[in-house]
User: Which sequence fits this backbone?
C-alpha cells in the first residue's frame, strides 16, 4: 500500500468512527432491582456503589431506594449492603422483562389515546389538533428548543368567555425527566379535561385562568428513553469528553451545584451541566417563563414517589407564604384523594421530605420570579412503568388536584384578575 492510500484509509476509519456511532439499545437483561431501606445510609450506599457502576440507575428518598444492579455487580452490591447493615429486598430478577412487557403495551397504533404512551411527534400532533379544534380559546406556544432541534411545544388555553387579558397565569411543565412517562401522559389528559369536560367546576377553572401547559419539556431525552434506554433521565447534549446529557432539573440558575448534583458529565443521573443553563432546554424555557406577566402558579409534574413538594429543595427554611402553600396544597391533595383514595406525602419542602437538591426548576421560578404558588407533584408509581391502561386513573386524580389547588387559591385571594376588559 502506498503512503497516499494509507493516509486515505486512516482518514476514512477516523471519519467513519466519528459519524457512524451506532446507538445501541440497552436491554437491561438480567439487571436486578433491589429495594434498600434504612433510616440512613441509603445515600452513602449509592455513592459508594457508583464507584463500581458509572451508569447506576436509582431513585427513592432519604430512607429507601430502588437500585438497579448490573448482573456482574450483584455480589459486590450485596456485600456493600450487608457491610452497612441495611435491609434489602430483591424486587425484580430480570428487569428486561418489565421493559419488554411495557413495550408490547405502548406499541399500539390506534391514534392518540390515554391507554398508550405516545412519542413526541404524536404529543405535538395532539396539541396541534386541539389548537385547531378550539381556535377561540387555545393557541400553540413554543417554550423553547431542544439540543437535537425539537420544539418544546405547548398549548395555551385562554378562553374568551371571561376577559382574555390580565388573567392570572397558570404554568405547567412536565416530562423534564425523560423516563417519567406518566408525567406527559397525565398532562395531555389534563389538557383534554380542560377542553372537553362538561363538569361546571372544570369549565370555571379553565375559563378563569390563562393556562400555559408544556407536556414534554425534555423531548430529546423522552425520545431516547423510548428508543434506546428506558431509564434515561437527562437531556442529550454532548460534553467535551463525549458523555451525553445533563439533568435538566439540576441545571437552573439558582444555587446551582449547591447540593444533590454531580459535576461529572458521565454521571448517569444528576450531572448538573457545565454551567447554569448550559442546556438549551432549560435556558430557552426559562426565557419563556420570564416573559409571562402575572404568573401566579407554577406546577411541575414528575414521578414516582407520590409526594407534593414545595420550594425550596435545598433548604428547610420556610418561605413567607409557606402556610398558604401548605393549606392550598392540602386541599389539592384532598381533592385528589377522593378519586382513588391514594394518599400523597406532603405538602412539605422537597428538602424536608425527599432529599436536598439544587438547580431545580421549581426553586428557580420561586426565587427569581417570586411566583407565589409553586409546586412539584411527584406522581404515583413505585417505578417508572405505570401501566398505560391506567393513565386515566392518575389523569382524573391530577385533574381534581388542580381543581383543589385553584379552588383554595381562589379562597385565599391568589387569583385576583388585574385587568377586567
Ligand atoms: O430529583 C428530582 O429532580 C426530583 N425527583 S425525581 O425522582 N422525579 O427525580 C425532585 C425534585 C424536587 N425539587 C425540585 N423540583 N426543584
Ligand atoms: Zn423527576
Assistant:
Amino acid at each position: 500500500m502506498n503512503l497516499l492510500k494509507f493516509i486515505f484509509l486512516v482518514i476514512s476509519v477516523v471519519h467513519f468512527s466519528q459519524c457512524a456511532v451506532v446507538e445501541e439499545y440497552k436491554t437491561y437483561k438480567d439487571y436486578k432491582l433491589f429495594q434498600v431501606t434504612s433510616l440512613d445510609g441509603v445515600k452513602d450506599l449509592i455513592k459508594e456503589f457508583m464507584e463500581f457502576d458509572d451508569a447506576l440507575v436509582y431513585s427513592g428518598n432519604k430512607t429507601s431506594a430502588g437500585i438497579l444492579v448490573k448482573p456482574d455487580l450483584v455480589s459486590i452490591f450485596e456485600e456493600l449492603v450487608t457491610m452497612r447493615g441495611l435491609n434489602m429486598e430483591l424486587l425484580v430478577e430480570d428487569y428486561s422483562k418489565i421493559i419488554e412487557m411495557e413495550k408490547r403495551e405502548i406499541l399500539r397504533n390506534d391514534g392518540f389515546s390515554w391507554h398508550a404512551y405516545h412519542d413526541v411527534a404524536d404529543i405535538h400532533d395532539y396539541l396541534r389538533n386541539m389548537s385547531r379544534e378550539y381556535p377561540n380559546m387555545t393557541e400553540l406556544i413554543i417554550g423553547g428548543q431542544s439540543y437535537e432541534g425539537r420544539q418544546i411545544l405547548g398549548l395555551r388555553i385562554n378562553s374568551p368567555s371571561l376577559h382574555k387579558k390580565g388573567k392570572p397565569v397558570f404554568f405547567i411543565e412536565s416530562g423534564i425527566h425523560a423516563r417519567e412517562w406518566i408525567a406527559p401522559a397525565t398532562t395531555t389528559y389534563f389538557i383534554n379535561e380542560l377542553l372537553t369536560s362538561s363538569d361546571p367546576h372544570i369549565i370555571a377553572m379553565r375559563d378563569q385562568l390563562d393556562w400555559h401547559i408544556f407536556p414534554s419539556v425534555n423531548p430529546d431525552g423522552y425520545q431516547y428513553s423510548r428508543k434506546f434506554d428506558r431509564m434515561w433521565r437527562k437531556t442529550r447534549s454532548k460534553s467535551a469528553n463525549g458523555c451525553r446529557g445533563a439533568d435538566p432539573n439540576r441545571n437552573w440558575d439558582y444555587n446551582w451545584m449547591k447540593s444533590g448534583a454531580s459535576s461529572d458529565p458521565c454521571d448517569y443521573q444528576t450531572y448538573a451541566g457545565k454551567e447554569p443553563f448550559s442546556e438549551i432546554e432549560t435556558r430557552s424555557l426559562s426565557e419563556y417563563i420570564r416573559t409571562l406577566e402575572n404568573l401566579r402558579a407554577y406546577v411541575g409534574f414528575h414521578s414516582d414517589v407520590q409526594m407534593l413538594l414545595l420550594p425550596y429543595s435545598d433548604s428547610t427554611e420556610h418561605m413567607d407564604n409557606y402556610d398558604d402553600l401548605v393549606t392550598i396544597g392540602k386541599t389539592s391533595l384532598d381533592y385528589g384523594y377522593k378519586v382513588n383514595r391514594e394518599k400523597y406525602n406532603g405538602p412539605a419542602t422537597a428538602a424536608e421530605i425527599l432529599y436536598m437538591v439544587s438547580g431545580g426548576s421549581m426553586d428557580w421560578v420561586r426565587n427569581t420570579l417570586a411566583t407565589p404558588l409553586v409546586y412539584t407533584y411527584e406522581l404515583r408509581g413505585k417505578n417508572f412503568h405505570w401501566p398505560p391502561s391506567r393513565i386515566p386513573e392518575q389523569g382524573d386524580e391530577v385533574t381534581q388536584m388542580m381543581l383543589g389547588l385553584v379552588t383554595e387559591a381562589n379562597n385565599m385571594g391568589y387569583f385576583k384578575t388585574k385587568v377586567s376588559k
Q: What stands out?
A: Residues 11-19 have pLDDT under 50 and may be disordered. The domain at 112-411 is CATH 3.40.630.10 (Aminopeptidase).
